[in-house]
Amino acid sequence: MAPLRYILIAIALLALGVLFWLQLARDSTGTGGRETVTIAGETFSLEVAADASLRERGLMGREEIEPHEGMIFVFPRAERRSFWMGHCLVDIDLIFLNEAGRVVAIHAMTAEAPQGSDESDQEYRDRMPDYPSGGPAQFAIELRSGTIARLGIEIGDRIDLDFRPLKQLAR
Questions:
Q1: Confidence tier at 85 by pLDDT (50, 70, 90)
Q2: How many CA atoms lie within 13 A of 102 on its CB side?
Q3: Which residues lie below 8 Å from residue 39, measured CB to CB, with a gap of 6+?
Q4: pLDDT value for 165
Q5: What CATH homologous superfamily does 32-169 map to?
Q6: How much is the average pLDDT of 58-87?
Q7: Are 93 and 109 in contact (CB under 8 A)?
Q8: pLDDT for the residue 66
């Protein structure tokens, strides 16, 4: 009977190890998956980008953003920030939020011509306009183009969202 008990213990430990590894892998991705947020009375499902790699990639390469989808960028602390539209195929609305969820800047960002085959990465970056936060921002939300105007979002508005768990994801 003793060998069976050791086998069961080994299986249990192995299962715990796999669960631990899966949780560690999830935590290290910098994403909590998706976050549901209500903005001006409408519900959006936002992808969470909480680590440098996901924030850098953002919505690059997307051919479409669904009407009630987008991305929320979560940074470790509030600082002046700037986004640009490199390798983005569609126009995107951008909302910068401070650590309390107040809108500090809004932008309607325009997709730019793709990087030319004879254009260096630096030349490509240099021709892109910057979209600044204007003040310290800890979060940014990207939505389908036209959403900010349609919802009437203005600087000073507050986006109601439980920011505490998002802040804990930031890396």
A1: very high
A2: 9
A3: 141, 151, 153, 159
A4: 84
A5: Protein of unknown function DUF192 (2.60.120.1140)
A6: 95
A7: yes
A8: 96
